[in-house]
Each structure stands twice: as C-alpha cells, then as structure tokens.
Input
Amino acid sequence: MKAIIIDDEKQAITSLKMELENILPKIELIGVADSVKSGITLLEKTIPDILFLDIRLNDGLGFEILENIDSLGKFEIVFTTAYDQYAISAFKKGAFDYLLKPIDLADLQQTIDRIHKRNHIRNEKVEAEKLSLLSTSIIGESRISLSTTEGIYLKRVEDIIRIQAEGNYTKFFFKDSKKSQLISKTLKDYELILGKLGFLRIHFSHLINVRHLERYSPKDGGHVIMSNQDIVPVSTRKKSVLLEALKKFTVSPE
Output
C-alpha cells in the first residue's frame, strides 16, 4: 500500500516514517507535505491508499484539505494528532482511524491490518457488484443489491436519484420515495460501481444520477436541483466536470 503524510512537525514525520518501516504489509511512502496548501497540491497530483493527516497545520486545519480535493473517497484517512477534541469531527469527515501522538507502533499496526482487510473485502464486493450489474444489464435493466438492517433490496439503477456520504456509510435517495436508505458502504464503493452508469461525483459527499438532474445554478457557490427537488452543493473543483457532462445533453439545432 502507498501512503502520504501531511504534518507540520518534522519530528512527527520522522517518527512516523520509522514506524512505517516496521509495518506489514509494506507501506510505501510516496509523498510528504507540511501545510494545507502543499497538502492540496500533493493530493491533486498523487493518490495514496492511506493519508496520515495531522489536524492542526501551520496554515489551517487538516479538514480544509479534505474539502478542497477531488480525490476524497479514494483513500483511507488516518488522523494523527496530539489533540483528542477533534475526534468526533474527524469521524464525521469519514476518518478510518484517529491516532494520538506519540503514535504507538502496536496501534499503528492494528490500523494498517484493518485497512488491509477492509480493502480486500471491498475489492471482492465491488467485483461481485460489477458482475451483478453486468448480468442484469444483459436483460435490459440494471439493478443493484443494497443490504440494510431490514434485509437485501434490489433497486433499479435508474430509480436512484442521488447518494450522500454519511461518514463510512451512504444514504440513498430514490424516485417516488420520500424514505432514504442507509447502507454500510462508503461513497467510494458506489462511485466505482456506478461511475460508468450515468452517476457523477459533484462534491466530496455527493454522487448524483445525471438522469435526475433538473437544473444547475451557479449561485451561492454552485448547486444542482434534482428531480425530487433536493438541492445538492457542487464543489468548486467539480464545477468543470459537471458542466462538461451537461454539454452531452445539449441538443444542437438542425
């Protein structure tokens, strides 16, 4: 697995580097940054499997990085900090773990073991979901299975209006239904499955079905209005992606 460290304390970076050398499976360090600004720049160029992120940086909070990158959801976030008061906010932002400095090697190994196991299970499930979608597409209708506490539902892909991240869970919103469903998978999982079926990531917390997009407004930073009248924000870095996608729906006059 590949990792990036974002921390403004040189001693903390050195210490974490040394501990990662003793971790199995092997962790390859592919980048280091020491501020919000340099962290955003690094993550725009390089996508790791794991991001070790300090919360208090010299030019702001690590949370600001997560709000300004397109690659969020494509890696696991492990916060490394000397402050425990940010734990709740960290997990709301989708953190996989929260390690207090000085980091204990045993705690770090346990975190890596859990990430490795989760990635293995996720890859197996994603491949199974892809095969399921492929087989149902052959008979003319794509369906996706969603496991909830109430049982397993088979939903038509075209009936999904949007999907919203809720930490390590996702909330599904459907056509002709006021009730959403909470699923114990991440938005990243469903972006991988549905990205080629008309779904677009327009924000670090939102994946929408373009079939149900009714209007885009640039006001108040940018948002879209869906077929059920839900208002969904568009991140600054996703505006160009959304506008490019909307061009495909433009009909040229004959």
Q: What stands out?
A: Helices lie at 10-20, 36-45, 63-66, 87-92, 105-138, 187-194, 239-247. The chain has a mean pLDDT of 86.
